[in-house]
Amino acid sequence: MELTELAQVLKALGDATRLKIISLLRVRDFCVCELVPLFDISQPAISKHLSRLKTVGIVSEQRKGQWVFYSLNNSVLKQLCVDLDELPDMSAELTRLGSEGKLVCE
């Protein structure tokens, strides 16, 4: 990875919201509408964070019908020697969303 590219990846990781998104993506793939209830920000703001992560290759997207699901690209993070185990466990948030009926059924 070139120095300029590395700097962009590290800048993308330097935001608490994006780190929380990455932590959630460790559990499973998400669409934007599922992430919005977890953050106190708008859907366009979540989309912008995901776009930033996608631009540097940390996440990828896949269309499933009308939904676009985002997933973690672990190979980029492994290149950086980033230990995802250091991120907080977000599975309780996922359980809460499920109980509120805010998860998209695949």
Description:
By secondary structure, this protein is an alpha+beta fold. The chain is 50% helix and 13% strand. It has helices at 3-13, 16-25, 32-35, 43-55, 74-79, 91-99, and strands at 30-31, 59-64, 67-72. A three-stranded antiparallel β-sheet has the order 1-3-2. A hairpin with a 2-residue loop joins strand 2 and strand 3 (67-72). It is globular. The N and C termini lie far apart (35 Å). The mean pLDDT is 87.
Could you outline the blueprint of secondary structure elements for this entry?
Elements lengths: L2 H11 L2 H10 L4 E2 H4 L7 H13 L3 E6 L2 E6 L1 H6 L11 H9 L7
Antiparallel strand pairs: 1-3, 2-3
TL;DR of this structure?
The chain is 50% helix and 13% strand.
Overview features:
106 residues, alpha+beta, 6 helices, 50% helix, globular
Largest sheet: 3 strands, antiparallel
Strand content: 5-15%
User: Which shape, going by the Cα principal axes?
Assistant: globular
What is the gyration radius calculated from CA atoms? 14 Å
Unreliable spans are: none
Oligomeric form: single chain
Count of extended strands: 3
Give the helix proportion (percent range).
Answer: 40-55%
Question: How would you state the average pLDDT, rounded?
Answer: 87
Q: Please state how the strands of the largest beta sheet are arranged side by side.
A: 1-3-2
Number of helices: 6
How far is the N terminus from the C terminus?
A: 35 Å
- Could you spell the SSE succession in H and E letters? HHEHHEEHH
Label the structural class: alpha+beta
